[in-house]
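Intended use. Records like the one below are meant for learning the mapping from a protein sequence to its folded structure. Do not use them to infer anything beyond what is encoded.
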Amino acid sequence: MSQPVAPGSQRVPAERLTDWATHLLQAVDMPADDAALLAGSLVQTNLWGIDSHGLARLPHYLDRITRGSIKARPQMVFTRSGPGTGQLAGDQGQGIVVAFRANAHAMDLAREAGIGAVGVSDSSHCGAIGLYTREAARHGFIGLAFTHADSIAAPHGGTRPFFGTNPIAIAFPREGAEPVCLDMATTSIPWNRVMNARREGHALPPDVAIDAGGRLTTDANAAIAVTPLGGESYGHKGYALALMVDLLCGPLNGAPFGRQIPPMFGDLDAPRRIGAFFITIDPRRFAGGALLPAVVAQVAAALAAEPGSPRMPGDPEREHEAARRRDGIPVEPVLARQFRDWSERLGVAAPV
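Structure written out for the chain above:
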């Protein structure tokens, strides 16, 4: 779901934002290829309408890189632990860069073994995890991705944060179109939407956040935690999913869990030590694999013919992308000011 856009926002072409962000990241010593990958990933996320994980996060990444809690040039180490398994030590690298590397290793393993599972340790915030599952699906694979985060979500029945938003992404190749992609938090909304609402003065939707007293609130400044997916009556489902994702990404990778994880917006000098987990499956190893992309397209067509014309997961993002490539990406007023501040600080011409 696309978030509200503040009055006074400026529309900026995606190409201009990508070029600007790439130059900023190179100015803080990120290698050119990694800078282009990170900048393009953030802009792509904005194009999908997921502004909570797009360029709004760039000032935070720059802050951590300049402070040293994210390394601009990490020495990542991949260790193959079995025919289809491996571990990537992220060396406190930028999470999106680390995650693309891990996902690429998972695809290499799947080409050889039919399935690849790669755990990540010692990383940082890796953005919208649909980036990685879509990449796998574009190469003909089924992609699954998971990551965890610091304590910003209250468990069902709890009154203070314990889990992260702990998202899940799954993507399938689709003939003649972009992959079908589920990319969802296990919470009502991502915490970054709370941060964006604070920055721009938006109210939150009802039933998605609680205050220090454990009460539901729409005041972003009063919110201390978001609620599990499913709300007051069915939040046990989102809570259980968050727990499972935390176990996959934390303890399985020798990484911290729950309240042990350093906060994203807390001590900016402390590395975050976040884990992630990627699974890539070669569908051709299964009975329906050869025809899978064509059948996925048939499923999409069959659903579209149903009453109400249901869309496939990921299709609303494609519609957002078409509109934003035409009209530009909205940059809200406070974010525009942050862009100008960083541009002046690093000697790069501002895009707004």
